UniProtKB/TrEMBL annotation:
Residue stretches in coiled coil: none
Highest taxon of source: Bacteria
Keywords assigned by UniProt, alphabetized: DNA-binding, Transcription, Transcription regulation
Name of the protein in question: TetR/AcrR family transcriptional regulator
Domain HTH tetR-type, residue spans: 22-61
Organism lineage: Bacteria, Bacillati, Actinomycetota, Actinomycetes, Pseudonocardiales
Signal peptide range in chain numbering: none
GO molecular function, one term: DNA-binding transcription factor activity
């Protein structure tokens, strides 16, 4: 099976994975059987088996593809921004945009299935690490006050996880986009170097 996963995808397989990702983002994956997926995607089960050995492994592959693609798109946006405050804002706005593509059912299914939850948790840790880098850069440049960058980033990471799982947004009665905007304000206001502002 490992060699199957590492084999380069054909154009048809790449297109099929993109369609499968769109379907799973919109409707989740737990309730689908391979027969259901084959019918919805107008392909054979053997075509799906060429992508993964089981429905569960297919879910892991598609969820991984979504998070990897999201991270790449966000990083492309961040790369165009020079100001460290702008990088944090762009990063969080990009995360909000990417998350808007995912249905509540998708997030629930990812959280309920240990292998996809693991992918999700790695993504949240990577987000916290990326924010730590931005914060450290801002402290070094004097844009932000001298703070414990890892602690701030880990706190932000927990809030991102709360947004992604829907817990925070449900409790606060806000959209994901509003929550990410508020997180950006919280971080940037909390990090502001008062001497620089003066």
């Amino acid at each position: 099976m490992t060699s199957m996963v590492r084999r380069p995808l054909t154009g048809r397989q790449t297109e099929l994975l993109a369609r499968l990702e769109a379907l799973v983002l919109a409707e989740g994956f737990a309730h689908f059987t391979l027969d259901d997926l084959a019918a919805r995607l107008h392909c054979s089960k053997s075509t799906l088996y060429a992508l993964a050995a089981s429905k569960e492994q297919l879910a892991v592959r598609v969820v991984g593809r979504y998070f990897k693609g999201a991270a790449q798109r966000i990083e492309e946006q961040v790369a165009a921004v020079e100001d460290v405050r702008g990088r944090i804002g762009t990063y969080l706005a990009g995360a909000a945009d990417e998350l808007r593509r995912a249905s509540a059912q998708f997030i629930a299914d990812v959280s309920a299935f240990a292998p996809t939850r693991s992918t999700y948790e790695r993504n949240a840790r990577a987000a916290a690490e990326r924010l730590r880098t931005f914060i450290s850069d801002g402290v070094r440049e004097g844009v932000f006050r001298d703070v414990h960058a890892t602690l701030f980033a880990e706190m932000a990471g927990l809030l991102i996880e709360g947004i992604q799982t829907g817990v925070l947004t449900r409790r606060a009665g806000v959209t994901d986009s509003e929550a990410f905007t508020a997180l950006g304000e919280l971080l940037l206001d909390g990090l502001q170097n008062e001497r620089r502002r003066a």
